[in-house]
Every structure is written in structure tokens, then in C-alpha cells.
Amino acid sequence: MYHVVSISQKGSKSSVNEDACIALSNKGIFVVADGVGGGPSGDFASRTLVEEVEHICSSGDDPENDLLAAIQSANLKIYKAGQEPKLNGMATTVAAVVQNESTLLVCHVGDSRVYCLSDAGLEALTKDHSKLVNKGDDVQKQVVTNALGVRESVKVEVQRFPSAQGHHLLLMTDGISDVVSNERMQQLLAAENRSVSEKLKSLVDESERCGGRDDKTVLCVF
After folding, report:
1. Mean pLDDT calculated for residue range 195-205
2. How far apart are CA 5 and CA 150, in angstroms?
């Protein structure tokens, strides 16, 4: 049986929290999403993904294929809804895992991340789909290069690892990972005499302390 702790907090630059997450512990499926597009459109995109995961994966009997089908279904729904002017340009990232006794399947699109925390330290299992672009006056910005809802079909990066049972899996949006270094995250997560919930709250607080204005979501499976 999996234990799950999650925190999702609206950032100061948002009118609503555009992040979303879901845990289907009985299926070994865990997902976080970061909607983009501003206000209700980003919220619509991430919520659509979570709803499709719940709808398709809860009733299915093949968690890995069900998750991938849910991601593609959500992508198409977001793409079609985005043809409406008020929702145009919306999209969402996704970072998701399916864990069983022998295998860990990691799926992601965009710059939300999956980490594995073990005695050896904190290891990122995903690589962001993003690039640096010049904004002028020597200013650079990290831009997502792949997201759900941009095209009629989406390319999902899928990796398979040995099961991470006995370790902690962390799924998080860039509201934390863009602001808090891996080294600092590892320090906070290694704090003794603190609960998992307290450790996750310390990640969110550290992001705020470092000036992070984006929405922040972190989900831990152990």
C-alpha cells in the first residue's frame, strides 16, 4: 500500500491555482500537472488531464496503457477546447508515474519533474522539455517546448526503471524546481525529526522565500 502526501499552493502571480494533481494508489498511478495559458484556461487544461486520468484509469485494468491513453485523450480535449477564443493558447505539462512491485514507468511532457529520493540522494528521473530563448537586453527565459493541448496528438516521453519501492518518489511542478536547487531540496528533504508533510511544506516555503511567484505543487509517494 502506498502512502501519499501532496501540497498544491497558488502563487502570487496567478488569479487561480493552475496546477493539479491526482493519486490513484490502488492502481499505482500518480500525476501532477501545470496548466499554462493564464487564469481559467490554464486551470481548465490541468483539470482536464486529472479528470481524464481519473475517468480512464479508475475503471481500467492496465495501468500503464490506461495512463498513456488518458494523457492522449486529455491532450485532444484540451486542443479542441483551445479553439475557443477565451481558451486559445492553453496547455498543460504532465509528470506521471505508474509503480508496481517490479517496475516504475515514468511519463512526462513539459517541465514538471519526477525525482527519486533514496539513501544515495535526490535523483531527477526526467529531463525538462524546454529551452532558453533570448528576450532582448541580455535577458533569457526558459520556454517549454512540449505540452498537452498544443497539437492534436502529443509526444510523451516514457522511461522504465526498476521499481522504486522503499524509496520516495517526488513529482513537482516548476514553481518549486525552477527556484530551489537540487542540493537545497535534498537538504530540506533529509531533515531529521520532520514528517513528510513538513518536509514538503519546507520546499514550498523555500520557493516562496527565494521569490518564486508561480503555483507550486509537490506530491510524494512512499
Report:
1. 98
2. 31
Give the up-direction half-sphere exposure of residue 198: CA atoms within 13 A in the CB hemisphere: 6
Domain with 17, as residue range(s), is 4-221
List the CATH number of the domain containing 31.
3.60.40.10
Q: Which residue in 56, 63, 154, 79 sits closest to 110, CA to CA?
A: 154
Least Cα distance to 78 among 86, 90, 66, 67 occurs for 90
Strand pairing partners for 161?
104
CA end-to-end distance (rounded Å), the chain: 9
Residue 141: pLDDT above 80?
no
Report CA-CA distances (Å) from 218 to 65, 78, 119: 24, 23, 20
pTM above 0.85, yes or no: yes
pLDDT digits (tens, 9 = 90+) for 4-39: 999 999 999 889 999 999 999 999 999 999 999 877
Helix (H) or strand (E) holding 160: strand 157-162
Cα-Cα-Cα-Cα torsion 132, 133, 135, 141, nearest 10 degrees, comes to -30
Q: How many domains does the chain have?
A: 1
Sign of the CA dihedral with 198 first, then 199, 202, and 207 last: negative
Angle ∠(117,166,4) on CA atoms, nearest 5: 75
3-class state of residue 55 by DSSP: helix
Q: Is a pLDDT exceeding 90 seen at residue 222?
A: yes
